[in-house]
Design a protein that fits this description.
It is a single chain. With about 190 residues, the protein is mainly alpha-helical. The longest helix is centred in the N-terminal third of the chain and has 20 residues, at about 40-60. The protein is flat. The protein has helices spanning about 25-35, 40-60, 65-70, 75-90, 95-100, 105-120, 120-140, 145-150, 155-170, 170-185. It is built from ten helices and no strands. The relative contact order is 0.07.
């Protein structure tokens, strides 16, 4: 069975442009830091997101950034606006429909495009944002887990704790304790 029924009439799109150049030290350093922390689970959870943000920032400052920007479509822009909406309203009972309406898309179309572009569903992304906010709240002070859950939009502390454990591989209390121990050892 042929891969493409209309193989003879199919047209191949040209490959996307490729940019090659020397690796600048400002880009190589965060990349090396990223690679060296991958073996440690705690560092992987704590530092990888920071290094990835720095790497993305450095990539956008390269000459090749114009190629990246040229590949962004109208739907990418809408999804980026939706991401901003989610981040600003994460703890306010946000629904997929509200997210979609914020960027003038139907709920179904929005959910499909969001997953296609980001690799996760809008609800999964919302959950990650809530958990990250809760993680930061817990690390800032002696905030009870129940308060962190409520302040980040969770109605149930047990649901929050279950999601937190799935995301960070430790209960909220154990995570904070592990972080404090790690900081004490490195200080």
């Amino acid at each position: 069975m042929p891969i493409c029924e209309d193989f003879e009439t199919a047209t191949l799109e040209p490959p996307p442009p490729v940019f090659m150049g020397p690796v600048e030290e400002t880009f190589a350093e965060p990349l090396c830091r990223l690679l060296t922390c991958l073996d440690n689970p705690l560092e992987r959870r704590m530092l990888v997101p920071l290094y990835l943000r720095e790497i993305a920032f450095r990539l956008l400052r390269l000459d090749a950034a114009s190629l990246l920007r040229a590949s962004i479509t109208r739907e990418h822009t809408r999804v980026l606006r939706a991401i901003r909406f989610i981040e600003e309203n994460a703890d306010a009972g946000t629904t997929v429909q509200a997210m979609a309406e914020s960027v003038a898309m139907s709920g179904s179309h929005f959910a499909h495009r969001f997953r296609e572009i980001t690799g996760v569903s809008p609800i999964q992304y919302l959950k990650r944002i809530r958990l990250e906010k809760a993680r930061l709240l817990l690390l800032k002070g002696d905030l009870p887990v129940s308060i962190a859950a409520v302040e980040t939009g969770y109605a149930s502390t047990s649901h929050f704790s279950r999601d937190f454990r799935r995301q960070f591989f430790l209960s909220p209390t154990s995570y904070v304790q592990s972080f404090k121990e790690h900081v004490a050892v490195t200080s």
